[in-house]
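Risk register update: the risk of archive-format incompatibility is retired. Evidence:
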Amino acid sequence: MIYLLCGLDTQKSRNKLDEIVAEFRKKNGGDLNIHRFDAEETDMMTIKSALETQSLFARKKLAVIKYLSLAPEWQTLFPVLGKIKEDHDTIVLLWECELAPEKISELRPYCSN
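Archived output:
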């Protein structure tokens, strides 16, 4: 499942992000399978690898990816996001500040409703 949190009101989207992460922690026993990435600073292969790797200890996984649209090769993650879209054991939260309409259009097909 993939969710896109974006908008000019970063405080509200940050609060929602924190709420989702806290709920995941509560239901799944802590931070063991929570991954956080800043896509501007992290190589896409590192993010891709983390998304594709299954844990030996936990069934569910949460990945928070900040600023994916600002990464130079951000579209290289699309095939992985396409596989994750219907996966209920992997949750990806894409957190963006301002996102151009054309980039929203590119991401929307990968996001869960």
